[in-house]
Amino acid sequence: MRNRTILKLGGSVITEKSAGSAGAIRYDTLKAIARNLALYPDMPLLIVHGAGSFGHPQAKEYHIQEGVTRENRKGIFETHQAVRELNTAVIDALRSSGIEAVPIHPLHGCEASDGILIDPVFGHLDRMISLGLVPVIHGDVVMDRVRGACIVSGDQLIRVLAEGLGMDRVGLATDVPGLLECDGSVVRELRRSTAHQVTIGNSGHIDVTGGMEGKIAELLALADHGIRSEMFHVSQVDAFLAGKEHGGTRILPEEL
Amino acid sequence: MRNRTILKLGGSVITEKSAGSAGAIRYDTLKAIARNLALYPDMPLLIVHGAGSFGHPQAKEYHIQEGVTRENRKGIFETHQAVRELNTAVIDALRSSGIEAVPIHPLHGCEASDGILIDPVFGHLDRMISLGLVPVIHGDVVMDRVRGACIVSGDQLIRVLAEGLGMDRVGLATDVPGLLECDGSVVRELRRSTAHQVTIGNSGHIDVTGGMEGKIAELLALADHGIRSEMFHVSQVDAFLAGKEHGGTRILPEEL
Question: Which Pfam families match (chains A, B) (predicted)?
């Protein structure tokens, strides 16, 4: 049975994302997730994580999203270095639990055009997963044909990777129980045709890549390609891995 | 005037490569090279470095060159981590001299087939160089369609990058004055048609990627594509950058 799984760890799950605590990693959360994942040693797995409080401040300081020229080019390294530091912490936590995690930095092999990844290559990732390695990829600054450089979010990566690698399951661990309506209730199922009925609550976090609305747009695009995804609270990672009820949101293709 | 330059820093130039000193970085050498490079802030530049005593011991311990399966897959991370550590030292030295160095790890974006890189992408590197950034790439373990994984040497990278990025100048800083004959004299010019007349001296270093003979094979292949390269002692980096006589070896295309 194929069971290729992408697990996305939201930036606000693995870092303190609120103001005044830039750069704080939630090591306890990382350890707990790593212990959960270690229970499924044979699951073909790829992990994507957001940048959280790592990278976003640098991206804002250097105005990366407004385009990069020689004047603000220094922001490319500074932004990358910050998310790279977070990625190292994720790798360390996973490897400490015996998971064969391998870092993958988008800046090193990807290119974008006007904010969208173009012709991304997957052969090496496919091979890693087949060999039982766990590639750990993250939101990053990447070079851009139109803007000089841009930020590619973990959510865009999920969509591109899930399609390109033919993943079977996509799960997003977040700091909320799922997609929330304004009244705080969880949207249990979301489809393109019903999305307009949902008034998305504000997640309260700054995010140069668009936050919840950008996330939902990417997941609906994934559903358009026939790939379903699930969004749940980080405490429900084990339920997701086990294929049990996690009380979150399922983003589904249109019913035929 | 286009003056796109690749500078290769040999593994034995930037690390203590002899037995018994695994993992020692030559920080003074790195600093001296960085100070030299800082004198040419407008030179479009890409740097490749070898692994030296970083990576080779791990590659040997895990028998990476004999192919990688689930049994020795742990060697992929271990080998990569070692060269990554060296790359970080190179980046730090360059940035301390004001050079906008950016790390590029081949494992993160490349794939090989039976030891040869296939369909490598260059768009992001091209863009970095155009923006005045200095990509710093290194010999690395990469995933391989035939062998599972393999080692790609800095010398293979030079050839692929010089061709793919249309570089104008290729210089290799080594710990010897150039390509040496058995009597210790420097071969001043080498062409494919004259290579058989040269009896290459032994550089005395262990190297899982083939040492001097592998290097010469890559540079002759580069010459076959019309790109000349130069090999010189590390003390002559400034002479190379300035376009002056460095007393080393020029590897040239056949004369028409």
Answer: AA_kinase
For B102-119, write each residue's pLDDT tens digit: 999 999 999 999 999 998
Contacts of A100 in chain B (CB under 8 A): 73-74, 77
B-interface mutation test, from A124, A140, A141, A152, most B Cβ less than 10 A away: A124
| pLDDT tens digits for range A150-197 | 999 999 999 999 999 999 999 999 999 999 888 889 999 999 998 877
The 10 Å Cβ neighbour count of residue B220 is 18
CA A161/CA B236 separation, integer angstroms: 46
pLDDT of residue A21: 56
- Number of domains present in the structure of chain A: 1
Cβ separation of B133 and A104 shorter than 8 Å? no
pLDDT tens by residue, B213-222: 888 888 999 9
- Binning chain A into helix, strand and coil, the percentages to the nearest 5 are 35, 20, 40
Cα–Cα distance, B86 to B26 (Å, whole number): 10
Output the pLDDT for position A18. Answer: 63
Instruction: Write out the two tokens for B4.
Output: 């796109």
Whether the Cβ atoms of residue A30 and residue A195 lie closer than 8 Å to each other: no
Reported as a single tens digit per residue, the pLDDT across A108-147 is 999 999 999 998 999 999 999 999 999 999 999 999 999 9
The overall average pLDDT reported for chain A is: 91
A256 lies in some domain: no
For the entire predicted model, the pTM comes to 0.93
What is the reported pLDDT for B204? 45
CA A53 to CA A73: how far, in whole Å? 21
Residue A109: closest CA among chain B residues belongs to which residue? B109
Beta strands in A91-214 (DSSP E): 101-104, 111-113, 116-117, 134-138, 140-144, 148-152, 169-174, 189-190
B93-130: b (≥16 Cβ within 10 Å) or e: bbbebebbbbbbbbbbbbbbeebebeebbebbbbbbbe
Q: Quick check: is B244 in a domain? A: yes
| pLDDT value at residue A181 | 86
| Contact check, Cβ <8 Å, B132/A77 | no
**From A143, which residue of chain B is nearest by alpha-carbon distance?**
B124
Whole-angstrom CA distances from A70 to A143, A149, B131 are 13, 11, 6
The CATH number of the domain holding residue B200 is: 3.40.1160.10
Which uninterrupted H or E stretch holds B151? strand B148-152
The parent domain of residue A183 ranges over: 5-251
Count other Cβ atoms within 10 Å, centred on residue B211. Answer: 19
Q: Is residue A222 part of a domain?
A: yes
Nearest CA to CA, how far is B186 from chain A (Å)? Answer: 37
